[in-house]
Write a structure and sequence with these properties.
The structure is a single chain. This protein has nine helices and no strands. It has helices spanning about 40-170, 175-190, 200-215, 215-230, 250-260, 280-300, 300-320, 325-340, 350-385. The protein starts with about 40 loop residues before the first helix and ends with a helix. InterPro entries: HemX. Keywords: Membrane, Transmembrane, Transmembrane helix. It holds the Pfam family HemX.
């Protein structure tokens, strides 16, 4: 600002027109005062710089605003693309959900069909079970008919063999014969078709083994020794009944006896139960006693066995020559046999026979029970109705 300007004079922008009402009329000065007014030029240059600065600020502001608008447009475009992508994904999801719903409906339909098929299969299975039950009943009836025919004959034969073996062992103590009968009974029972009699074979085998073990080795050897003694009795020498005394007494009674000997002849029987006329009768009596000892040994009768051996030993001591080596050997054998008394108890038979009879009784009652069951079911069905 120059010195020639007024201090309070407002500055107007370049190109502005003054208001004629506000501008005070200046007094007309002389022309000599017009030369010094060329000084306000610096004020016009500052205004121009200010205008340029303001223009630059406006341009910068416009550029910033434009840049912000451009960024906003780019963001809007990206958001539009994201929204479009999301809309596309939503459409895809809707399509997928529609497909899943269709598949779910298809699965529900298939499950319904499967349930219907299962229901029909269950009904068929129940019918098949009923048919199987009827078939089992028919097979059972056929088995009963077979049992009443061929199997009944085999069971009768088995029962007869078991009863015969028991009676043979009880009466004659023939363990070998009874064991043979048990073997035949086992073979006959093996031909029976009914498996219910399979356990009976075990009982028969057990009694058969007991019969086989009822005669131990010592008993067999004792029987063999008794048989050998019976065979050797015929060769044993008898005792002489009239033995001459080498030294005859000389007393009065002896002389009287010799005097009467020519009139009366007296002989001793040596304690024999009967008057033995010849050697064959003595041998037969001893053989009979040995046979009784054998029978008592087989019958497990210790008392009769010991009594028979004592009778044989008494016969050898009274009727046979005790000085003969054969007789002494026979008596030693009898003494050894006397120590081998039968101690084991006889075999208890009859369990297998009782079991067979019980099984046959049960099978005889089974048809009656099976016939009574359908009758009871038919009487209950009308009252209670049929339930699926």
């Amino acid at each position: 600002m120059s010195n020639v300007d007024k201090p309070n004079e407002p500055t107007a922008p370049e190109g502005a027109r003054p208001d004629p009402m506000l501008v005070d009329p200046l007094p007309i000065r002389p022309m000599r005062d017009a030369a010094p007014r060329s000084a306000p030029r610096p004020h016009a240059g500052g205004s121009l710089a200010l205008a340029v600065l303001l223009s630059l600020v406006a341009v910068g502001a416009c550029g910033y605003i434009g840049w912000r608008q451009w960024l906003q447009e780019q963001g809007n475009a990206a958001d539009s693309q994201s929204v479009a992508g999301l809309q596309q994904r939503v459409g895809t999801l809707e399509t997928t959900l529609a497909g899943v719903s269709g598949e779910r409906n298809s699965l529900n339909q298939r499950l319904s069909d499967a349930a219907a098929v299962n229901r029909s299969l269950r009904e068929e299975l129940l019918g098949q079970t009923e048919r199987t039950r009827n078939l089992e009943d028919a097979v059972a009836k056929l088995a009963e008919k077979s049992l009443s025919g061929h199997d009944a004959m085999l069971l009768d034969e088995t029962e007869s063999l078991l009863r015969m073996a028991s009676e043979r062992y009880t009466l004659f103590h023939d363990a070998q014969g009874a064991a043979a009968a048990y073997a035949l009974a086992d073979q006959t029972l093996a031909a029976v078709n009914d498996s219910a009699f399979g356990g009976l074979r075990q009982s028969i085998s057990a009694e058969r083994e007991a019969l086989a073990k009822s005669q131990p080795a010592s008993q067999a050897s004792a029987l063999q020794q008794l048989t050998e003694l019976r065979g050797s009795l015929a060769s044993l020498p008898l005792k002489s009944l009239d033995t001459a005394n080498s030294t005859q007494p000389t007393d009065a009674w002896s002389r009287i006896g010799r005097a009467l000997a020519s009139v009366v002849s007296v002989q001793r029987d040596n304690g024999a139960p009967l008057a033995i006329a010849d050697a064959r009768f003595a041998h037969e009596l001893a053989a009979l006693d040995l046979a009784q000892a054998q029978a008592a040994l087989l019958a497990y009768d210790s008392k009769d066995y010991a009594a028979a051996l004592q009778r044989v030993d008494g016969s050898l001591s009274t009727q046979f020559d005790s000085n003969a080596p054969a007789v002494q050997q026979a008596r030693k054998a009898l003494a050894a046999l006397a120590t081998q008394l039968p101690t084991s108890a006889p075999v208890q038979l009859g369990a297998a026979l009782t079991e067979l009879r019980n099984l046959r009784t049960v099978h005889a009652l089974s048809p009656a029970a099976s016939n009574a069951a359908p009758a009871a079911a038919s009487s209950v069905a009308p009252a209670g109705g049929v339930r699926p």
